[in-house]
Amino acid sequence: MDRDNILLTPGPLTTTLRTKLAMLKDWGSWDADFNALTARVRRGLLDVLHAQDSHVVVPLQGSGTFSVEAAVATVVPRDGHLLVLDNGAYCKRMGKLAALMGRRTTVLPLPEHLPVDPAVLEQQLRADPSITHVGLIHCETGTGIVNPLAAVSEICQRLGRGLIVDAMSSFAALPIDARTLQFDALIAASGKCLEGVPGMGFVFLRRAILDGCAGRSHSLAMDLHDQHRYMERTGQWRFTPPTHVVAALACALDQYEEEGGQPARLARYTANFDTLMAGMAALGFRPFLAPEHLSPIIVTFHAPADARYDFQAFYAGAKAHGFMLYPGKLTEVETFRVGCIGAIGPKEMQQAVDAVAHTLASMGLQRAD
Ligand SMILES: *Cc1c(COP(=O)(O)O)cnc(C)c1O
């Protein structure tokens, strides 16, 4: 096989050859050409959310979590109180990083097989006026469930609380429109549904809160207000930028627009998802979530109950056919995950299903159930 293994993971994910080739150039971080590239990327990112009037976008070096941490540090005052609605692993991570940096944090445990319930949020906010901000994971990548962003945003706006959205795995694939949805911060990263390479995140900050964010961060490197101020003044990143990652993201944004933007990307991921679900059902695999809660981002499947099944062997078998699966992130039940995102189409997804079928057979199993 002369192609790279296909990554059926929620980031890094498979990128196009054109995106990979965009990295074959060295850029000077102080140079006008690179500053223009950064400016182009920032404009393109704002366009994805129609957020030119309402928000600024601040890029930050590092993986997506660095940007979640920076958003909390920059937006939540040191004497603020963050409520995290927890229905999965990434929710727990946001709660943990907020508590570690010393912000008062309440993590509300909710069932992980259901979207968070807006009525529970409203009740919590009414009961505790000290809560200044709400943290929501839009698509909880640990299971693939999509949380009700519009309803949560409406409640936060009505009750006068700030909202921080981790939209890492949904941004550019699921519709989010800043003209109709209020949020203080929304976080995503280069190596997810925009199909760039990993290495930088970015945070949309509501213009109306920007000035109030000065001096809130306990950390220099995580201070998005300072990063933004410096970038506005100089056109440059404060510290060494991930130049090749920025170049790849600029190229990936071009391809996103050429493909037809968010609706086209969602349509392709939905075709991948449909192919995956039909093929896996035929092999006897059951998804962890009820059908109405599944998303075309990533699907969690129950592992076969048969004693001959072993994830390491299953993973190795699929990899030998050129497909990288993802382990489950649930503690109670044995699962594995398959991502529908990345620069792949239904043809590659059908090949992935065929690889799973061969791998099952090689373990002595005809079906998963
Ligand atoms: C990928 C992802 C992150 C960031 O993870 P990193 O490993 O730091 O890139 C955060 N939240 C969600 C929901 C994600 O899918």
Describe the model.
With 369 residues, the chain is α/β, with parallel strands linked by helices. Helices cover 40% and strands 17% of the residues. The chain is built from twelve helices and 14 strands. A hairpin with a 7-residue loop joins strand 13 and strand 14. It starts with 5 loop residues before the first strand and ends in a 7-residue tail after the last helix. The model has no long low-confidence stretch (mean pLDDT 97). It binds pyridoxal-5'-phosphate. The site of pyridoxal-5'-phosphate has 13 residues, from helix 3.
The unique ligands bound to this protein are: pyridoxal-5'-phosphate
Mean pLDDT: 97
Q: How many helices in DSSP terms?
A: 12
Work out the strand percent: 15-25%
CATH class of the largest domain: Alpha Beta
Order of helices and strands: EHHEHEHEHEEEHEEEHHHHEHEEEH
Kindly report the oligomeric state of this protein: single chain
